[in-house]
Amino acid sequence: xxxxxxxxxxxxxxxxxxxxxxxxxxxxxxxxxxxxxxxxxxxxxxxxxxxxxxxxxxxxxxxxxxxxxxxxxxxxxxxxxxxxxxxxxxxxxxxxxxxxxxxxxxxxxxxxxxxxxxxxxxxxxxxxxxxxxxxxxxxxxxxxxxxxxxxxxxxxxxxxxxxxxxxxxxxxxxxxxxxxxxxxxxxxxxxxxxxxxxxxxxxxxxxxxxxxxxxxxxxxxxxxxxxxxxxxxxxxxxxxxxxxxxxxxxxxxxxxxxxxxxxxxxxxxxxxxxxxxxxxxxxxxxxxxxxxxxxxxxxxxxxxxxxxxxxxxxxxxxxxxxxxxxxxxxxxxxxxxxxxxxxxxxxxxxxxxxxxxxxxxxxxxxxxxxxxxxxxxxxxxxxxxxxxxxxxxxxxxxxxxxxxxxxxxxxxxxxxxxxxxxxxxxxxxxxxxxxxxxxxxxxxxxxxxxxxxxxxxxxxxxxxxxxxxxxxxxxxxxxxxxxxxxxxxxxxxxxxxxxxxxxxxxxxxxxxxxxxxxxxxxxxxxxxxxxxxxxxxxxx
Length: 540
Known about the structure:
540 residues; mainly beta; Immunoglobulin-like; 5 domains; disordered N terminus
C-alpha cells in the first residue's frame, strides 16, 4: 500500500479550518518574496532588474553658480519641468556648424545632466530670435536647439536670468551704491507675452549706506507712485514724495533711517509692473571739495588735483572727451591727490576734464603755455625717437608716497648738471629737445648712482639711447628713470631707499662723457627734473 500523503494526514490531525488558516498566513509571509521574483523579467536572454529613474539636470549660470537642480526623485510637476525640458533639448538637438557672427544669443547657461546612465554637459546659447538657439557639448561639437524646445525653455520659470526685464528698477545713491529692497513683487513679460512673477533678491534686514552731501537717491526707472519717510533718532522728520527728498536738510555724520514704497502700475500697455519696499539706513558724509593748483601748464610741468572728504578713491570719477588719460588717485587721510600732466594725445592748447565724487562734480580747464620752450610736440617726438617705452613704467603702481620722504641730491654725490630738460640735442641727424637731465661725474669714473627718493623698482633694461637703465616708482604716479648707467645693480621688484645704490655711472649719449641721465615721467609724459627733484609736492 502506498504511503499516505503528508498534507492529507496533517489536515486530518488538525482539522480543515486550522489548515486553511496556516495556509493563508504562510502566503502572506511569502507574498513580498513572490513579487520580487516576478519583478525579474527576461529580455533578449538578459536578466534586467527594475530600478528607480536616476535622471538629473543641474542648470548653472556663466560663472558656474547653480541656478536650479532637479531629478526624477523630486517628482517635478508637469511636462515643463526642468528635467523634461532638457530631456527634450538633448533628444531633439541636431548637429550643426558654428553659428554666424550675426546670431544674437543671451548669456550662455550650462546644463549638466545624467540621462540613461550617461553624464552629459551642454553649454546652451538661447536666443529670443527663432531658430537661433544652439548648444555646444564637451567635445566642442555644435548642435542646433529646435525652435520649439528653445521657446519652451524661454517661456519657463527657469529662464528668468536671461530676461533683463526680470530685474526691477534699481534704487541707488549718488555715490554709486545699489540699494536692495526689503520686499518685492515684480512681474515681467516673457517670450509668450505672458506676465511672470520674478524672483527678486531682497535684504533680510536694513543695511547702512554712505551718502555724500545730502539725501540724494535715484531710480533707473521712475515709479508711478513713490512715498518716502525719513527718521532720525526714532523721530519722523520727513514724510512725502520722492521728488521732495533732496530738499531735506540734515547734518553730516548723522545716521538716518529711510523707508520707501515704490509702485509701477499695470497700465495695460505691456510695461513690466510691481511694487518694491525699502528699509535702510544712511550716513551723511561731508561734501567733497575739488581743487586744482594751476590752470596753466608748460611742457615738463604738472598740476596737482586734490579732492577732500574722500574715504574711497574707487568712487572718484575722472573723464574727458579730449583724451583717454586717467590718473591714479592717492589717498592721504581724507584727501585724495592726483598729478595731472598735459596729456600727450590732446589736440590744441586747451585740456578740459571733469571730476566727480558723490554729488560733488567740477569741470577744470588747463591751458598749455604757448610761449614755453620746448613745445609739447617736441617732447612727444623726442620720446618716440629715443625709444622710450612708457608701458614699462606702468607695470606696477606704488601706493607709498616716497616722494614726500628723504631726498638725496645727485650734486651731493659728486655730479654736476651739464644739460637740462628741454635743451636742444641732435640724434640721427635730427634736432630734438632733451627729455632728461644729464649729470656728469666730477671726481672720477665708475661712480655710484644712488636713488634720489625711495621707491620700488618696476623695470630694469637697456636701449640704444637710454643705455642701461632702471625705473623706480616713487609714488604719486611719478617714476624716476636712471639712464646711461654703466651697470645696473637692482632688479624689478626691489625696494630702494633714498641714497641706496641703483648702479654705476656710464657714458652719456648726448655728451660722450662719464655720468648718468635722470628722467621723470608721469604716466606717458616726461616731466622736468626741476619740477620734482628736491621739491615737496603739496598733497594736503
